[in-house]
Write a structure and sequence with these properties.
The complex is a heterodimer of chains A (205) and B (205). By secondary structure, chain A is mostly helical. Chain A has a domain at 7-145. Helix content of chain A is 66%, strand content 2%. Chain B has one domain (52-204). The chains are: A mainly alpha (205), B alpha+beta (205). Chain A binds chain B through residues 39, 65, 68-70, 73, 76-77, 80-81, 83-84, 87-88, 91-92, 94-96, 98, 102, 105, 159, 177-178, 180-181, and chain B through 10-11, 13-14, 17-18, 21, 24-25, 28-29, 32-33, 35-36, 39, 43, 124, 126, 128-130.
Chain lengths: 205, 205
C-alpha cells in the first residue's frame, strides 16, 4: 500500500480491493457474512453497503488519528471507532429499512468483529492519509459487496428460480432448497474460491 | 500524582474519542429511536389487522406475565380488537415458544369470547428453510383459523382441512410444529385466566 497521496496511490487504493486484495475471494477474511447473509441478493447488497459505510467512516477517523495513536492502544481505538459506526448503521437500518434489518438480524451488529474492517484500519488507515484511506475503504468494501452479491445471486436463482422477484429459470425448474441452507453457502463459496484460484493459478506459475 | 499524569498521557485520546462517539450515538439514537419504535408497533398492528380485518383499532388493555416453564417468564401485552362501532370483536397478543433453531414469536388473535382462534402470523422465527419455516405457510396456519382456542393436539397424520383442535404436523418439522402448538396451549390458558380475572371477558358478551 502506497503511503503517499499522489495519483497512482489513489488508483491503487481504490482498485486493490476489487480483485487483487478482494477480502472474500483472495484474502479469505470476513467469511461470516458471505456464508450467513447470501440467501438472496437484497440482503447481500444491504450487508455490502453497510460494510462500505463502516469501512469508509472508520478508515477516515483512524486515518485522522493515526499520528496520535499509541501503539498499545490502537486496537481498542479501532474497535471503539468501528463499533460506533456499526451501531449507527444498525439504527439506520432499523429505522428506515426495517425489513432488511430483520432479515439480516444479528449480522449487522456482528460487523464490529468483521476482520476486513480492523484489517484495513491496521494495514491502510493507520499509515495513510484520509483520502487514500477513504478510497481504500470504498475499494475493499465494493470488492466485498460484489463477492456477496455473486454468492447471493447464485443461491437465490438456484433456491427460488428468481432474482429480485423476477423468474429467470425455465418452467419446470425444481428449486434447490439446500441452496438456502448453510450447505448451499459452503458449496457455492467453495466452488467460487476454486474458480478464483483457477483464474489466478496461471499468474502464480 | 505521576501515576495520574501517566494515565492521562496514555489514555486522553481514548477518553476523548469515547466521549465524542458516545455523543454521536446518543444524538443518532435520539433522532431515530421514535421511528424504530413506530416501525415495531406498525409491524405488530399490521399482523393483528390481517388476523382481525374488521377491527378498526387495537387497544392495549393488559400486560400478562406468562410462565414459559423452567423458570422463564415473558410479558405479553394483550390488545382488544375494537370494531367501527366501538365494540370488542376479539383479542390479540404475542406468543413466544422455543423452536428448532431459535425462539418463535407469533401474533395470535382470538374471538371476543376467547372461544375460537382467528389465526396466527409469525412475528419472528429462524426455523430451517424448507422445513420448519413452513409454519409461515397457509396450509399449516389455516388449521388454526376457526379452531377452538386452546387444548391443541399435534397429530403426525390426518386431514389438515378439518378444523378442530387436532393439528397435523409439518412433515420433517415436528419440533417446529410442536413448538407452535405448545406455545399456543400455554399462552391461551394463562391469557384467558388473566382476562377472566380482570373481568374483561364477561364484559364483551
Amino acid at each position: 500500500m502506497s503511503n503517499n497521496n499522489s495519483g497512482p496511490g489513489y488508483i491503487q487504493a481504490l482498485t486493490a480491493g476489487l480483485w487483487r486484495e478482494n477480502p472474500t475471494f483472495r484474502l479469505l477474511i470476513g467469511m461470516c457474512p458471505p456464508l450467513a447473509v447470501t440467501t438472496a441478493v437484497k440482503p447481500a447488497l444491504t450487508m455490502g453497503l453497510s460494510v462500505i459505510f463502516v469501512l469508509v467512516c472508520s478508515n477516515f477517523v483512524v486515518s485522522l488519528l493515526r499520528n496520535l495513536l499509541k501503539p498499545h492502544l490502537r486496537i481498542i481505538m479501532f474497535t471503539a471507532t468501528i463499533a460506533t459506526f456499526v451501531t449507527i448503521c444498525d439504527l439506520y437500518l432499523r429505522a428506515f429499512q426495517p425489513v432488511m434489518s430483520e432479515v439480516l438480524g444479528p449480522y449487522v451488529p456482528l460487523i464490529i468483529v468483521n476482520c476486513i474492517i480492523i484489517f484495513r484500519a491496521e494495514v491502510c488507515a493507520s499509515k495513510c492519509g484520509p483520502i487514500v484511506s477513504i478510497l481504500d475503504g470504498i475499494g475493499s468494501g465494493t470488492g466485498f459487496t460484489i463477492a456477496l452479491c455473486i454468492l447471493g445471486g447464485i443461491r437465490e436463482i438456484l433456491a427460488t428460480g428468481r432474482i429480485f422477484e423476477i423468474p429467470v429459470m425455465p418452467a419446470g425448474f425444481v428449486p434447490w432448497a439446500a441452496m438456502q441452507m448453510p450447505v448451499g453457502a459452503f458449496v457455492t463459496l467453495g466452488l467460487l474460491l476454486g474458480l478464483s484460484s483457477l483464474l489466478t493459478s496461471g499468474k502464480r506459475s | 500524582m505521576s501515576k495520574i499524569k501517566l494515565f492521562v498521557q496514555e489514555s486522553w485520546l481514548l477518553l476523548f474519542c469515547s466521549f465524542c462517539f458516545g455523543l454521536m450515538l446518543a444524538a443518532t439514537n435520539a433522532a431515530w429511536s421514535e421511528k424504530v419504535e413506530q416501525n415495531r408497533i406498525n409491524k405488530i398492528k399490521n399482523l393483528m389487522s390481517s388476523l382481525v380485518p374488521d377491527a378498526n383499532n387495537f387497544e392495549p388493555v393488559l400486560d400478562v406475565e406468562v410462565d414459559l416453564g423452567k423458570g422463564r417468564k415473558a410479558t405479553s401485552q394483550v390488545f382488544k380488537a375494537v370494531s367501527d362501532e366501538g365494540g370488542c370483536i376479539g383479542w390479540s397478543f404475542k406468543v413466544e415458544g422455543t423452536g428448532f433453531a431459535d425462539k418463535i414469536e407469533l401474533i395470535v388473535a382470538v374471538d371476543a369470547a376467547f372461544e375460537k382462534m382467528a389465526g396466527y402470523n409469525v412475528l419472528y422465527a429462524a426455523e430451517t428453510p424448507g422445513f420448519g419455516d413452513k409454519i409461515r405457510q397457509d396450509f399449516f396456519r389455516d388449521q388454526f383459523k376457526g379452531s377452538p382456542a386452546g387444548d391443541f393436539e399435534l397429530a403426525r397424520t390426518g386431514d389438515s382441512k378439518i378444523i378442530d383442535n387436532r393439528i397435523v404436523a409439518i412433515s420433517g418439522a415436528t419440533v417446529s410444529s410442536t413448538a407452535v402448538v405448545n406455545a399456543l396451549n400455554n399462552y391461551f390458558k394463562q391469557i384467558k385466566s388473566a382476562l377472566e380475572a380482570k373481568g374483561l371477558l364477561k364484559n364483551v358478551k
